[in-house]
Amino acid sequence: MVLPLSPEWIPGSSYTYAWVAMDNQGYLAKMYNNNSGWLPKVLLSIPEIKLYLDDLSEYIDGESEKYNNKINKNANYIVDLYSSYTYRKYDKPKIIKEFDFELKKWDGNHSDAGIGAKMGMFLFEALNELYEDYPVGYEGETKTGDYFRFIVPTIYATIEDIPEELRKYIVVSDSLDFTKDRLLDNNKISDYFTRMYSE
Q1: Torsion angle in degrees (nearest 10) through CA of 106, 95, 134, 154
Q2: Beta strand pairing status for 122-126 and 171-173?
Q3: Alpha helix locations (H) across the chain?
Q4: Are 141 and 95 in contact (CB under 8 A)?
Q5: For the stretch 72-90, what's the b/e string if a residue is b when 16 or more beta carbons lie within 10 angstroms of its beta carbon?
Q6: pTM, full prediction
Q7: Which sign does the torsion angle of CA 33, 36, 41, 43 carry?
Q8: What's the pLDDT tens digit per position in 182-191?
Q9: Beta strands of 61-162 (E only): which ranges?
Q10: Per-domain residue ranges for the chain?
């Protein structure tokens, strides 16, 4: 059973939610909770928030029927940390080779690399509780639900790249810098992200 997003929601429903965050530099990141990561309380307090998260995610992925996404930074991307489980048969060069192929095949849409290269956004993913997962390349301790920095863009998106109607559904951190912070403690998600974007 998938629990609806509300202040009472808890992770672990075998459903992945995608949400969008802004750091203290104004840089944007797409966040995948992978069944296990918490979502900020300030986000969960918005009625029917899942509908707006879907709209944001579909826009970023080039799949929206409501919002035309013409953004293409024509940038590159960097694979930073990656899931030991998802890519258990890969090393970083093989991941990059596959991602480069996907970028060409789909023009940056529908791909993790496209979030960085086409949209100019960072990508963070949470460690999944279903697997003995850890972020390859990170030397510190981690736990289920911690968000790790997967994709780093070489040119950064700004809030102007997001449709005006959707900007208010972006969660903001006044303490994080996505260019420096590679791992986000799952227990502190609501401490990191305390407010919604406003003009």
Answers
A1: -70
A2: unpaired
A3: 41-44, 49-60, 92-106, 112-117, 164-167, 189-192
A4: no
A5: ebebebebbbbbeebeeee
A6: 0.95
A7: positive
A8: 999 999 999 9
A9: 77-79, 82-83, 122-126, 135-136, 147-153
A10: 18-196
